[in-house]
Amino acid sequence: MSKIYNLKREVEKPVRLTGGHRLCAGCGAGVVVSGVLRALDKEDRAVVVNATSCLEVSTFMYPYTAYMDSYIHSAFENSAATCSGVEAAYNALKRRGKVDGAVKFITFAGDGGTYDIGFQSLSGAMERGHDMVYVCYDNEAYMNTGIQRSSSTPRFAGTTTTPIGSVGQGKKQNKKDLTEILVAHNIPYVAQTAPIGNFKDLHTKAYNAIYTEGPCFLNVLSPCPRGWDYPMAKLAEITKLAVDTCVWPLFEVEEGVWHLSYTPKKKLPVEDFLRPQGRFRHMFQKGNEWMIKEAQQYVDQKWERLLEHTSA
Amino acid sequence: MSNRLSGNEAVAYAMKQMNPDVMGAFPITPSTEIPEYFAQYVADGEVNTEYVTVESEHSSMSVCIAAQAAGARTVSATSSCGLALMYELLYVAASCRLPITLACVNRALSGPININNDHSDSMGARDTGWVQIYAENNQEAYDNFLMAMPIGETPSVRLPVMTCMDGFITSHAVENIELLETDAVRKFIGEYNPENYLLKKENPLAVGPYDVSAYYMEHKVQEAEAMKAAKARILEVAAEFEKISGRSYGLFEEYRMEDAELALVLIGSSAGTAKAAVDKLREDGVKAGLVKIRVFRPFPGKELAQALANTRAVAVMDKSEGFSANGGPLFAETRSALYDLKERPYLIDIVYGLGGRDVKTEDIEKVFGRLADIAVTGEIGPVYTHMGQRSKEDIA
Amino acid sequence: MIYAKDINERTPWQDLTPGGEIYEPGTARDFDTGTWRTNTPIFHVEACKHCMLCVPFCPDSAIPVKDGKRLDFDYMHCKGCGICEDVCPFPAITMVTGGVAK
Predict the structure, then answer these.
(1) Predicted ipTM of the assembly
(2) pLDDT tens digits, one per residue of A231-253
(3) pLDDT of A294 above 60
(4) Where is the domain boundary, B245, B278, B310?
(5) CB A135 within 8 A of CB A194
(6) What are the chain C neighbours of A28 within 8 Å (beta carbons)?
(7) Does A289 touch chain B if contact means CB atoms closer than 8 Å?
(8) Domain A7-311 belongs to what topology?
(9) Which terminus of chain C is more solvent-facing, meaning fewer CB atoms within 10 Å of its CB: N or C?
């Protein structure tokens, strides 16, 4: 990639995630994965690793692979270890003259496979320092099994395991701050991004992650029209609202140095992000104003903390 | 060349001679020494293996699966709960048809936690699609490990292989052992050149699909056929191995079985004790014999039935408890194998040695005593019993 | 080598790839997801400025680009989600009801 991002040039590259996969219409994961893979230089080979997820069952349903590159899926909780195994094999075979040329190693897993069940595997792989990229496409719940809460699900969100009832008001806990936990691994590159606008942010961060030596981590917001309960055509709007309300700030941490990638011209109230989504519908009922207030307080607090990091 | 090595060191030495591409390494008693010895070989530049010190056995097996799929020869070692933690991935390794080689140093499973030997770990993994080969002693542990790759990597097989030895009894005891020259080992195992692998330049490879029901069963039939094909291949490899080592191996070892009327069927290091008991009984004129199972997967049912066809009473000795309330796993296999015989011997199951409970020649002699009574009276008594535990009946 | 095009739900087990491996790139392209559409995007080439904003937002890689020009939809793979219409700054994409482009 030349230094200046050019959408026109990038979209002319041959696709690496093909059509014909079985992700739902309007799925954010398809957008995120093709967006990340687009950052690979055209001539470079990659091995794509995948945790069990919506993405996996949809993109490699026998005998149909949607990947132009080599691909491996093994289980739900081990995609980082799997990627490190491929990388280890590459190092060994390269040393013995059995493979040549650059190969990039990119893992995709959902938030369940990353924040929860795959967390140990991820932490281990990052600590060992494999030359790999781990991409979490974060849709904030276990969508493949039918929208159950994960540690990434935001507070108050209704899911099938945090349903709304006469007593229950959705998820009780706040979202785990995984990106910050990855920063604490002292790896060369950690970034939080989302598919917005002309994809410059996502593309540049994916490029940095792929072409920075060592373990790199991307957390990418990936709206799910079914799980979040919004009209599927509204993917771009929902994502933009997440960013402009600072619910999902865009930032990167290079060698421990924090950079804020985007400051909203006008920081929108969090309810602008919550209102279009069915999973937060109960928050707008009479008597539940405190929920919106507390959600706003939490976002503000996290945003202030991020600003402290990035201005330091 | 002769040497004095523990079972763990013998297996680590075999690994060094093979110089695998990738090793997944994680400590657990009693297999810990294998990755320790190997780490020293790495540190001393005696191998150029990519040595991956993972954070769990689960990741160890995950690394092996991925590396093997990527085109590398991979090894690992584990025991007990480590193997149990790999459980899900043992199936994945076999179903992806990846010929990984794993040294299992047999140890009891928790709970309660116990570090000593029995076979509950590998017996729990008996239906995962791995070839399982068991050793009686250090020499066999070394030899079996060397034979694993040529078995697993055969295109008609393409299955992972687990070589098992008894924790502490074999893994930590130092014995005289014959080692092959490294050149001979390298020649014997050859180069690993899979037709397709993730890092292949000419075409990509996709591994680990979501199989809908229209395909899953067909893939399982392929796997079952591969396990059947492994039996003949195990014998072929043993024959090739005999040429370079002078040591001969079958699917099981028959000890003084030619005219045996009373026989034991068991696995692992207890065979040494049992052989001593058989010798003693033979001196007393008892026609005692032993079948030591070497290959448990694929199970040599037909061959075992032939070996036991002329016996009158047989005791299967299970070093793991299957909690079926109907006998241990070796018993289930043996009894099933004998079903096709026109005239079947009396058959009992004795579960013994759990969590390191010792078994002595006198214990084995008692088992033969029971078999002799059964053969004379035709009264089989309780079919499934335990041996070696304290009991109120003994005190009374 | 066994090719994906020779594998279907009538293929005997002997003719399937071992372990479900696939040795070719992008075999999913042979699978028609266009039948999923309940709404269909229509491309109005005359209104298109080829800004390409719609392309990366397509979850199904169903907007081909060639020589700097955005081409008509790949209707075999387009699932009709409508994200492209939503992000298009121009009147170059409109959604019509039903699965057929008309």
Answers:
(1) 0.97
(2) 999 999 999 999 999 999 999 99
(3) yes
(4) B245
(5) no
(6) 59
(7) no
(8) Rossmann fold (3.40.50)
(9) C
